[in-house]
Write a structure and sequence with these properties.
By secondary structure, the protein is an alpha/beta fold. About 30% of the residues lie in helices and about 15% in strands. Helix 1 crosses helix 2 and helix 2 crosses helix 8.
């Protein structure tokens, strides 16, 4: 397993999977080890994935200063990693909360980005956030599923701040609540650094006006990929995030939740590969 040293001396690890041209990958969570991304729906058959374990997660070391878990403080980790891998420019894919880090990186180092893929992105870096109302509006899309009657009251109470997180409503985060989704969800606790998670979106992490201004000059093509059933971000919020980029494509994966590579791997991989190669891809974006 390869490692490199960040500017503050923290030893960071990353994982290489597959073969072909590199695709650099930032995980979400926030602060979840990259293992949950697996092969990203079979992308390893076409690209060599380089998946970073952010500081304090997975095989990466815990930093001496916990303040460095804040999203903006890790932009330089990504830049040191790029240089370590010898990439002049890179195709960068980020999922969920990792998209906030990717946006800050693209704003600071726009010339290092060749293509940017944002999967069900958290757009906090743009001054936009998923609200409880967004999640409640998306929830009825699952009303016909057998787990809904038990899950929805607990979900509503959690969103209202009246109850703690409950495993009963985890199915809302997946497009298909099957054995694969259950196994994926079960691994989350052991893969997530809770202290780091609490600090990732800390006060001062984002300056949306400056980030938007910087991203307005980004010339690299950007794909913003949403899940039809995802409540955070809902497709409309993801579409509005895409508007921050001059060269953005926006698409919605039918029947997908927050982890679209699990819900329909072939559709997901086809769409992402189509974008990365500049072709239509095996799975075109929806009409959303």
């Amino acid at each position: 397993m390869p490692t490199f040293t960040a500017t503050d001396g923290t030893r960071l690890a990353y994982h290489l999977r597959g073969a072909g041209e590199p695709l650099v990958v930032l995980p979400g969570g926030p602060m979840r080890a990259s293992a949950y991304l697996r092969d990203l729906g079979g992308l390893t058959a076409h690209r060599r994935l380089a998946l970073l374990d952010l500081r304090g997660t997975g095989a990466s070391a815990v930093p001496a200063d916990p303040a460095t878990y804040r999203c903006d403080r890790m932009v330089e980790d990504v830049e040191v990693w790029r240089a370590h891998m010898g990439l002049e420019h890179m195709d960068l894919l980020a999922h969920s909360a990792g998209a906030a880090l990717a946006m800050l990186y693209a704003a600071r180092y726009p010339r290092r980005i060749r293509r940017l893929v944002l999967i069900t992105p958290n757009p906090s870096a743009l001054g936009m956030r998923t609200t409880p109302e967004d999640r409640l509006a998306a929830a009825p899309l699952r009303a016909d599923e057998p787990w809904f009657a038990e899950a929805f009251p607990a979900f509503r109470a959690w969103l209202a701040g009246e109850a703690d997180f409950d495993d009963a409503f985890v199915p809302f985060f997946y497009g298909r609540w099957d054995a694969a989704a259950r196994a994926h969800a079960d691994a989350e606790v052991e893969q997530t650094n809770e202290e780091a998670e609490a600090r990732y979106f800390g006060a001062g992490a984002f300056t949306p006006g400056a980030t938007r201004a910087a991203l307005a000059g980004l010339t690299a093509p950007v794909l913003v990929h949403a899940g039809e059933l995802d409540g955070g971000p809902r497709p409309d919020l993801a579409r509005r995030a895409a508007a921050a980029f001059p060269e953005a494509e926006f698409g919605v994966q039918p029947g997908a939740g927050h982890f679209p590579w699990l819900d329909d791997p072939e559709w997901f991989a086809g769409r992402v590969l189509g974008f990365l190669t500049g072709s239509a891809g095996a799975a075109p974006p929806s009409a959303e």
